[in-house]
Structure formats: C-alpha cells, structure tokens
Design a protein that fits this description.
Glycosyltransferase; single chain; mainly alpha
Amino acid sequence: MNRVALVSVVVVLAVFQGRFVWAQDGAAAGSSAPESRSAQHSALGDEITPSLDDAVQRGLAQLAAEQLGDGSFGSGRYARNVAITSLACLAFMADGNVPGRGEYGENVERGLEYILANCNENGLIAAEAANGPMYGHGFAALFLGEVYGMTSGGGDTGLADRVYESLTRAIRMIERTQNDQGGWRYNPVPYDADVSVTICQIMAMRSARNAGLEVDKKVIERAVEYVRLCRNADGGFKYQLEGGASAWPRSAAGVASLYYAGIYEDDAIDRGLEYLVASATPGREVNTAHYFYGHYYAVQTMYLAGGEYWAAWWPAIREQLLIAQNDDGSWTDSSVGDAYGTSMALIILQMPKRYLPIFQK
C-alpha cells in the first residue's frame, strides 16, 4: 500500500471513531473523550441558522476578494503573511472547499501554492517579512496538515506528495526546536518559550498526527507539561513560566492544548473552563484584547468540553459575531487587519459544520 493510500485509511479510521488520541500506546495521559459530552454527538438543533448561513456566505465572498495576486492574504505590516494566508484558507476549507473542489477551491489552491513556495529546506514556513516566524509556522503547518488530511485519499497525488514533504519537514523542525522547558517562542531556536506560540505548535502536531504522520510522543509530553506549568491559581494561564497574570485568550489556548493532546478529564481543564466562563463569556469579556485569537481557541475549548458549556457558549459567540459583521461581509481587526478578523470569525462561525479534521473529535 502506498503512502497516500495508507494515510487515507488512517484518516478515515480517525473520523469513523469520532475522536483521535495522540498515540495508541498512551503517549498522552488522560482518558478518552466521553461520547455523551461531545457536541459532535449531541448537536443542538439550531446550531446553524439562516442568518449564520447568510453571514458566512457574505464573509467568504469578501475574503475571496481580498486575496492577493500571489495567493496570499494580509495587508500593511502583515501583508503576505503565512499565518493570515493559512487562516484564510482554513476559513474556506471550513465550508468544505479544498484545492480543486468547491466554490472557493481555487482560492484554497492559490493560498496553498503560496504557503508551499515559502516552505524552506530547514522546515521553517515563513515569508521574507515574517512577524514572529514561529506563530506563522504553527498556523501554516496546521493548514498543511488539514489539507493533507482532507485530500490525501484522491485528487492530485503530486500535490499531496508536495504537501506531505513540506508538512513532514515542518513537523521535524518543530520537534528539534523545542526548548528545555518544553515550549517554543517567536524564533525557531530552542531558547525561550511562551504558552501562546506553544499551542500553535501543539495544534500543528495534532493535525499532522491526525493525517497519519509520526510525531515524537516525548515532544508532546514535554509540551503538555509546559502548558500545565503555565497555570495560575485562578485557573487561568500565564504567558511564560517566569510569572505573570492570567488572561482569557491564552487561557483558552491553554485548555484547548490539553484537549488536543488527548486529555479530557483533568483539574487544569475544569478550573480553566470555570475561569473562561467567568472572564470571557461572549458579551461579558473582562477585556477584548486579542479578541479573535481568544475566541478562536475559546470556541474550540467549549466545543470539546461539550454539554452545557457548548450549549451556552455557542449561541452567545454566534450572536456577537453576527452583530459585529460589517456591511461588506468582513470583520474588523484593528491590530492585524480585516483579512485576519474575517478569517477568524468565519472559522468560529463554521465550526458546527465539522469539515476540518482538527474539529472532528
């Protein structure tokens, strides 16, 4: 059996089982996700409404119009940014579009070609004017993992091979640049770390593992331990081990990282969820700094928590984002740009569609 066919079988089995853990030999500590708690197995009847559908279609059309000639997305100091380009393509893929298929399949394919053109031989995915290259690398590797997971069973096998090779190099680069604490930071050197960049790498490795690539379980174990050590007494997460206050965006990322490592029952998750409900419930956020980043991870966290968490959180963030949408279909982010804000809002709003393998528990 060739590599493409083998990986296809792995992905199908992962989706069929309804969940995926890091390794069959128990590489990540923690119990399996209870079926009854999963939003995927207890979907709310009104998760997707006509107003949401309309907002998504207008948002996708506007996002497509923002794509640059070279296939990239972004503007200003974030022009042609690999992270924003990857997130934009993930927003299209969340609607079922993949390279060569779907209304926005061509947009995904052009974005993918841009990312592949910026994959370096050492594994780093970064354009020349990279802003915090490991942030971009993590999101780009996640995108490649999702593309490979959704397309490796058919279509352009030449493209699948190119994606596989670039993804493999990207994951190996992540593995060899983990620092002594177990995390990563802005640059691809094992020097210091922060929880925000670390979760980007955990997501990338999870996506690659879902798609059938081997990922060093020791790297995952050390990364999970790093995230655990970033906990504060209030249930939230600090930015670095050296100290600092909790903030809800990185706390959402911290809890999500534990879920994505295959941990479903843990005091860090329980306390983290309590912290998020108290400090970041949509409409009652303590602060709105890093709004889209925070809610991108928070909605994943609540989806993975399922039950009452998802039932309360989803309608609230859905309503908030629908109200915030601009007349042209975009969402405004004053710090990074509208392509970023629109991409993140679309990924959040389309999560109930469950097209992306990373969202298939």
